[in-house]
Amino acid sequence: MRGKPTEQEEYTSQDWVHRMTGTSDTFLAFGSGRHLCPGRFFASLELKIFMAYLVLNYDVKMAREGMRPPNEWLGPMSDPSTNARVLFRRR
Hints:
Number of strands: 4
Order of helices and strands: HEEEE
Oligomer: single chain
């Protein structure tokens, strides 16, 4: 379950609880089956802690406001643009 819900499915509040550590056939960043990454919960927690710190201590904005660079695709995976400029200011 990644991305926006389709017309057939609708997310409930419980869907978001396991969203970062859940797996599916269409999202293989943490592997699948016997090769499922045991550190995915730790990685998820570290990312959440970092984001909380960032939100609490910094003002963040795009260098070119009003324009979001398109994602870069590598096969089925997409990443934010590596050419994007983001400005951080400590509060």
